[in-house]
Design a protein that fits this description.
This protein is of the alpha/beta class. Helix content is 39%, strand content 13%. α3 packs parallel to α4, α4 runs parallel beside α5 and α4 crosses α9. This is Short-chain dehydrogenase.
Length: 294
């Protein structure tokens, strides 16, 4: 199926989907498509006013929850609220993120890209897992990036970039971490048989995420980027296609995976390093104080 589109999304009636960063860009398009197919969609967003505006524009069965991925306190509060609302969660889509930001930290002192893109979603997933595991066919979909290949490594000797800072390499670390997390999570979920974990990347998508691109790169990026609606297709396929397997990675099928329709793609050899996955997992539990159930 080389041209999978939103028309291929199965009926989502009766399913509950949580989408982080859903008030704009890829998250908005993801939430919009799921709601259009009948899902109850929760827009998990930092700014409630923007979330409510997005919910109005989407229509359908959509609610809003406050979530600031730069704050572990906010993540815990959001998880508590969501667990009080829902006995079961069918889809958790870890979509929110930042890219190539100037050096900054989260409220807990983590480097902003690593803290938001990886640690925030690691904590949220761990805290919500008890609502996913009982639901047959539930999924955790985490958005990575082509950037997981660019200057990418896990710098355990300086995870928070305190000695030096390269915003491209810091983004590469965070997006590599998304994949390492997904693959280790899938290994841990496999024996349950109810929940799967998959990863995706949107190619080059024209969203607010690109606002920190250097000016000289903007013209070149515009040549290879695609709409947010197209960029959301890998996420939507990983979240809804019945043929998806745990541990798969979806991205665009076009040249350089920068644009096109979603298909299974390959991630870097480093992302499949089991020892690296397990070491990052242990460090992430220690940093967030979120310990996953065995």
């Amino acid at each position: 199926m080389s041209t999978w589109t939103t028309a291929d999304i199965p009926d989502q009636s009766g399913r509950t989907a949580i989408v982080t960063g859903a008030n704009t860009g890829l998250g908005f398009e993801t939430a919009k498509a799921l709601a259009a197919r009948g899902a109850h969609v929760v827009l998990a967003v930092r700014n409630l006013d923007k979330g409510k505006d997005a919910a109005t524009r989407i229509g359908g069965d959509v609610t809003v929850a406050e979530l600031d991925l730069t704050s572990l306190d906010s993540i815990r509060s959001a998880a508590d609220e969501l667990k009080s609302r829902y006995e079961g969660i069918d889809l958790l889509i870890n979509n929110a993120g930042v890219m190539w930001t100037p050096k900054s930290t989260t409220k807990d002192g983590f480097e902003l890209q690593f803290g938001t893109n990886h640690l925030g979603h690691f904590a949220l997933t761990g805290l919500l897992l008890e609502r996913l595991l009982p639901v047959e066919g539930s999924r955790v979909v985490t958005v990575s990036s082509i950037g997981h290949r660019i200057l990418a490594d896990i710098h355990f000797d300086d995870l928070q970039w305190e000695r030096s800072y390269n915003r491209v390499a810091a983004y590469g670390q965070a997006k590599l971490a998304n994949l390492l997390f997904t693959y280790e999570l899938q290994r841990r979920l496999a024996h349950h048989g109810t929940t799967l974990a998959a990863a995706v990347h949107p190619g080059g998508s024209d969203t607010e995420l690109a606002r920190h691109l250097p000016g000289f790169m903007a013209p070149a990026f515009s040549l290879v980027s695609q709409s947010a609606a197209m960029g959301a297709l890998p996420t939507l396929r990983a979240a809804t296609d019945p043929s998806v397997l745990g541990g798969e990675y979806y991205g665009p099928d076009g040249f350089g995976e920068t644009r096109g329709y979603p298909k299974v793609v390959a991630s870097s050899d480093k992302s499949h390093d089991v020892a690296l996955q397990r070491r990052l997992w242990a460090v992430s539990e220690e940093l967030t104080s979120v310990v996953y159930p065995e």
